Amino acid sequence: LLLAGCSEFNQPISSEHEGIWNQYIVWPIVSVIQIVAEFTGSYAGGIILVTVLVRICILPLSLKQMKSSRAMQALQPQLRELQKTYSPKNEETQRQYQQEMMKLMQSTGANPIAGCLPVLIQMPVLLGLYHAISRMNVTPMYELGSIFNVPLATSSIIFAILAGVMQYIVVKTGPTLKANSQMSFMQYLLPIMIMIFGFIAPVAITLYWIISSFISVLQNLYLYKIL
Question: pLDDT tens digits, residue range 26-37?
Answer without folding.
Answer: 899 999 999 999
